[in-house]
Design goal:
Layout (H helix, E strand, L loop, with lengths): L1 H11 L4 H11 L1 H18 L2 H29 L1 H20 L1 H4 L3 H13 L4 H12 L3 H29 L4 H21 L23 H30 L5 H21 L7 H17 L7 H13 L1 H15 L5 H30 L1 H24 L12
Length: 403
Amino acid sequence: MRSLTARYEALFRHAGAARFAALSLVMRMPIGTLGLATLLHVRDLTGSIAVAGSVVGTQFVASAITAPILGRLVDTRGPRGVLLVTGLVAPLATATMLAAGWIGLPRPALFATAIAAGAFMPPVTVLIRTLWRMRLADATARQTAFALDAVLLELAYTLGPLAIALAILASATAAMAVATLFTALAVPLLFASGGLRWWTPQPPGERHWLGPLTQTRLLAIYGATALLTTAFGALEVGYPAFARAAGADGWGPVLIAINAAGSAVGGLVYGGLRLRTPLPRLLPWLMGALALPVACHLPITSPWGLVPFALAAGALIAPAMTTVSLLVSSIAPARYATEAFTWSATAIVTGIGIGMASGGAMVERFGPNGAFGVAVATALAGAALALAVRGRGTLPPAPDAAR
């Protein structure tokens, strides 16, 4: 514990590090608020969770498609222009979604607005990691920064749904207003953090048009990640559906927050472990293990009864995703380092979007257990695909197995 504390103290001795870390939590709040708020808002507008899940899924898929394009623009031209454009368009799109009921926006326009919001979502999360890497030359300091970054990301997933849970007490429109506010704040806070001063232009070099996608092991990791995060998206739909079926809508965001809190705790514990198992062998075990507590969701009908299993499922999320990040950073060629993480983010967003859309459709037919069943199946499928990474050789675990 003392050595862990000393590492964080050393990190915060770097000029601007504490300010950047603190503001990066608020920059990430759209991650924990926008998808859920849009789901609840569109469900109230249309009366259909399947339509709402499809709208949110469309938004995520649009983001997944454009993220690598934005990432390559950032790599080649710098981040400021990309941030100025996306920092304007995305809040305007979410504000339009907020006003959809008042202006009578038809369903096709809801999907178009979702596409605009997703396609121009500012690449804040990728930039935060890239800026930490540029600021910190020491490998140990980078590991500490990435471990902190993982915890802050999970806090965003925890605090965001809690903020939506409070706002939904007023109305779904109020919840959407909270998410719109956080979306509008993300880019201004990144400029205010001072982190953009750390940006170092990369020297020009030869690049393949496919970038990191030429690496077969990375493709296997991206595929396994997409399947795993499909389970996350299905859970995000399943928990509100479970709460509505139980006659307690407020439990939906609370269960999502409990799941994210479990992930934060799991990430902290995982970050302090010294693992001997090579990462390619560890990844399928973590993904497969996630299916067990999710399967335990199926027979439960009480929100209180679901709490320990939502917490247990969450405790495996951050370790699995941290292992994915470690593998990407180990396998990706240096010239594609930022773009490789962008493709990883694309896999994550695509999976969550597919999970929300398919989970919503399954809820319409089978109730909340339909979404939970999707989560079990896709977690197991991700574990099976992750075996391909294991089969292609092993990589030594990074020091302290932490990012």
